[in-house]
Write a structure and sequence with these properties.
Chain A is an alpha/beta fold and about 650 residues long. Helices cover about 40% and strands about 15% of the residues of chain A. In chain A, the strands form 5 sheets. A 6-stranded parallel β-sheet of chain A has the order 10-9-11-12-14-13, sandwiched between helices. Chain A has a 5-stranded parallel β-sheet with strand order 1-2-3-7-6, with helices on both faces. Chains A and B meet through helix 6, helix 7, helix 8, helix 16 and helix 17 of A and helix 6, helix 7, helix 8, helix 16 and helix 17 of B.
């Protein structure tokens, strides 16, 4: 690539700088410091290394790029425009941060071709990049260098490194020797509140070495050093951190090197002075033809490589193409359907975490892209099934990840696996500790990724481990989150139905909230996937009912028992099993009204009562938890907190009296 | 302490081992591996170093102890019993993990004297210990060695070190040189899913050194090494990690050294063999007199030291005693009350984040125990006010912490500050990033701590930063969490009222959800703290109303505008400001009905609609968000998502038509 001399590179980098600063100036909002500081690194990376093809932004074997410091979004938008991505033009840059623009405040996956991930919440990008690099190694191990061999690059700042999730992610990357992961750290010594040393003294080089990384330190404004470092990183047998010493806001005469240029437009005066300073005699949004041409040439570098790959991919055939496009094999759920029938026939009584394992035993062998795992709780979450193989640094050809005690990184890595493609991830932990990965789950919901969370020990049914381990508010806390499905199945059949829906839903993550304790089989038919309706009548007569009990998971059998008791006493009650309120809310009003009926309603769930008024109204009753749980045997806790058959029966009678 | 010879120490450690193993056996549930493995370290620590007085468990100047690996709770309970804490007897050990027992599955703060913190969720203990060590240094700087000079000890396992929060916390501890913090790492190479090396290869020594810690490696079963290491750690000018190489389940003949003894009772056979193995010829729960006496003697070691301290504390007088007991000074809120009056008189129009800063300017000089801070967003959260001083490693005598980009550690450190006492913490970040510290917030709620979260940028009002930065589900997600107050004030007066309530509520953490954007002054009187009622009528006539608008924060002014518009059209509407639903729920039914009325109700909140049916019922309306936000100017976003005056007016008219 000798055609790009240093002076040309410098002008190309300045094109990034001025497009970024001009767009931020125009929108009166944004973060110029990072695009200006990292323009040199980005120019070398994108013109000499990144294997991408702007005409085929979704090329499977492209290098991935994650702007972990997502606030520097203009760096990304400038790059995509300069490289010739068709999805973005100069007007999009002019519309930076305007409603409906592709150039959103932070890069948003799916809004603009060339964005490999939504970033902004710090630490998520670098951690999901570990998932991308992991996916690459797994698929490489299965299909070989011809079909899958690429790098994952990250640009991040100090913020990402201070966030705890980064430690979880880099320690797993080091452990698994993900040597095609290359992190370019914008080492500018500035955060929002001032110089980094006000709040941090970490020796990052030593820190990364402690978790098994290759490290390189360079001047982030020196093209030779940048190029040499990336070339060396590509050859490492470990993941690499390149510490790029940079000046934040490079080029801005008075604000460079200070936090003043981090998160606000430079201002007309400073921007004019920067034009002088960098000898950039062009109007806002103007890129001189030779510079633009040089960028467009760089963008075309891999067209032949793409074509060669595409030929090999087509030759590899449907199996490979289905694999990388995450298509489920035909009849993938045939064993799952068998399991349902068999379980009904045998009246299988198991905890739903065990039911989930039975499902996984029926699923995993039939979906090659599955990548399962657990955060050190495989034996409790029951996420591992016969025939699975754990991915190790010696052999990536597996489908189980031992995430370690790293819930947050697990969430982010699963996002990275799903974003990369050729991987359908699920991961387990205790439901209560899903709090640890909540920021990653939110991003999965926002990006619309197929990620499945296997969250066991879902209520006070946890028992002796006590309130630190008993989820109370968690069901409600996910039901209020947009675009995530919260399943709480009541038996093997509903668990299987939930798994079917979770895996078929390509653009929504799903939670499976599963019991520790055993539950009876309640369903007597599995012909229709009733869980797909969100809620349905599992016992009782729609028309004759005098009251309706609405319950989820472990409390459905309680509701059924109460219904039987009341029937003995001559009171007709219907039981609605509501494994997924979000799906129920999507049904027609007619369906909803038909299921819930007009008789008094009572919701039963061993969890926070919050939100159930939506279904029982102001005059119904809710049997649930008002505070935290307690340590003790599970059955005693149900008694203690009044989630009992007697309580349900009394509630019905009281409502009928009114 | 030469009276304790090694053979005696060994027997004393075995007393811990058998009490722990017997209790776990009896309860058929629990984690024996850690108490057995760390019994030797704990014995040396508690008999030779810990400055505690079992007769005065709350002694302010005691050393703090955090069992970060909370699943090893029997280690703690055995210690407390052996040392002679009156709050625990042998029957409590027999009742381990039973409902209502003081000996809960995991150590619970407030349930049993001598427990300095609730632990169980991994990583929280070691991180809150940083807060305790920080409180000690701050108070030491103010009152001197005579009144406050003690150590904070932590026992943790690999789990705590793998959790990302630990990196955030230890890097801040190293940065601030909290040299009285001593961490004893149970380095047993075992996690639930097997040996540590299956999921982690971190060089922990190098990792801690990278963040400025002193490190020592020892055999955790060698008494001389343990004693020497702790003595050396006490003299270090840095925090110290003591890596204690141990055998998990030490003494159990076949399960020792494996994950089999981590989380289940040993079983009768193994336990009997362990008795033989360790030559322990005593019945379950029997501790021979000489061993018990030796422990009780050790427990009394500091009685004189306590008396001497108590004398000095009494001599220091009321100011000091009020300080360490976290009593608010009389009339602490006089300036705050003035602020309210002045703001009404001047019609102050500011963002509620700015209102909060005005409040802090009135609060901080009047409460000496305040320890504020922000996770690198001081200039956005407006958490810093004139006269505050940042705590640095050179000078701990301050009241502002620069937490860095470490939300999770900030949450845990604030817990540690509050637990230590002599510190009333608040900390700021963007509301959306409260997700990062949610596990610590949950523990604050569970422990009942006075911690205040200043969470700004509370809706789509964030504007251009887009959906990654716009909270949607967050209000609902905290309203469903037990024992936490979620305030969303609408103007300066309500903000001041929220601050008053948050600071006067000693056993409940509080969230202040505050706007980025400016808001008008709505209140015309500040005589009563109306926020204390949770919700109240801010505009309109109770009796004449044809509809009721219920709104919070920035949407109250929208509701008021709609009310004015409707009044022009001859429709009478009342507006309920609802700054805290949790407090409203605590009012009498009569009050609630009086405020909400019987006319149709409409809730307005620029957030997830989830949960509002509780107040508007099945036939009301909710104007809010159904999905994630978007990037664009704030006013345009309100229009785009239909949270507008027109929408409210139309909703009222539609409801009235029905």
């Amino acid at each position: 690539m000798t055609f790009l001399q240093n002076n040309k590179l410098s002008e190309m980098a300045n094109a990034i700088r001025f497009l970024s600063a001009d767009a931020i100036e125009k929108s009166k909002s944004g973060h110029p410091g990072m695009p200006l500081g990292m323009a040199d690194v980005a120019t070398v990376l994108f013109t000499k290394f990144m294997k991408i093809n702007p005409s085929e932004p979704r090329w499977f074997d492209r290098d991935r790029f994650v702007l972990s410091a997502g606030h520097g979004s203009m760096l990304m938008y400038s790059l995509l425009y300069l490289l010739g991505y068709k999805d973005i033009n100069i007007d999009d840059l002019r519309n930076f941060r305007q409603l409906g623009a592709k150039t959103a405040g932070h890069p948003e996956y799916g809004h603009l071709a060339g964005i490999d991930m939504t970033t902004g919440p710090l630490g998520q990008g670098i951690s999901s990049a570990v998932g991308m690099a992991l996916a690459e190694r797994i698929i490489n191990a299965k299909f070989g260098d011809d079909l899958c061999a690429h790098y994952t690059y990250v640009i991040n700042g100090d913020g990402c490194l201070m966030e705890g999730i980064s430690e979880e992610a880099i320690s797993l990357a080091g452990h698994l020797r993900l040597n095609k992961l290359i992190v370019l750290w914008d080492n500018n010594n500035i955060t929002i509140d001032g110089t980094v040393d006000k709040a941090n003294s970490t020796d990052q080089i030593k820190r990364f070495q402690a978790v098994g990384w290759n490290t390189i330190e360079i001047d982030g404004h020196n093209y030779e050093q940048i190029e040499k470092a990336i070339a060396q990183a590509q050859k490492s047998d470990k993941p690499t951190l390149i510490a790029c010493k940079t000046k934040i806001g490079f080029g801005a005469p008075t604000k460079c090197g200070t936090s003043k240029c981090h998160g606000s437009p430079l201002g007309a005066e400073e921007l004019a002075a920067m034009r002088q300073n960098l000898n950039w005699n062009y109007e806002p949004f103007e890129v001189p033809e030779d510079i633009l041409n040089a960028w467009r040439e760089a963008g075309k570098r891999n067209e032949e490589a793409y074509k060669a790959w595409d030929k090999k991919a087509q030759a590899a055939g449907k199996e490979f193409l289905d694999y990388i496009n995450d298509r489920l094999p035909k009849n993938w759920d045939k064993d799952l359907n068998e399991l349902k029938k068999k379980s009904i026939a045998e009246g299988t009584k198991v905890a739903t975490r065990k039911a989930s394992q039975l499902c996984l035993q029926a699923i995993v062998p039939n979906i090659p892209q599955i990548v399962g795992g657990s955060a050190d709780l495989a034996a409790s979450n029951l996420t591992f099934v016969d025939g699975m193989k754990t991915v190790t640094r010696e052999d990536y050809n597996g489908n189980n990840i031992m995430y370690g005690i790293r819930e947050h990184a697990m969430g982010a890595i699963m996002n990275g696996l799903a974003l990369h493609g050729g991987a359908i991830p699920y991961g387990g932990t205790f439901f209560v500790f899903s709090d640890y990965m909540r920021p990653a789950m939110r991003l999965a919901a926002l990006m619309g990724l197929r990620v499945v969370y296997v969250l066991t020990h879902d209520s006070i049914g946890v028992g002796e481990d006590g309130p630190t381990h008993q989820p109370i508010e968690h069901l409600a806390s996910y039901r209020c989150m947009p675009n995530i499905l919260t399943f709480r199945p009541c038996d093997v059949v509903e668990t299987a139905e939930a798994w079917q829906l979770a895996l078929e839903e390509e653009h929504t993550p799903s939670i499976l909230a599963l019991t520790r304790q055993g539950l009876p089989m309640l369903r007597d038919s599995a012909e229709l996937n009733m869980t797909a309706r969100g809620g349905y009548i599992i016992r009782g007569d729609k028309k004759k009912r005098q009251a309706t009990l609405i319950a989820t998971g472990s409390e459905v059998s309680l509701a059924v028992a109460a219904r039987d008791k009341l029937k003995e006493e001559g009171i007709e009650v219907a039981v609605v099993s509501m494994p997924c309120t979000e799906l129920f809310d999507k049904q027609t009003i007619d369906y909803q009204e038909e299921i819930l009926g007009t008789a008094p309603r009572i919701a039963i769930e061993a969890a926070s009562k919050f939100g159930w008024e939506k279904y029982v109204g102001l005059h119904g009753d809710i049997i649930g938890m008002d505070g935290f749980g307690a340590s003790g045997p599970a059955e005693q806790l149900y008694d203690y907190f009044g989630i009992t058959l007697e309580e349900v029966v009394d509630s019905v009678k009281n409502l009928l009296k009114k």
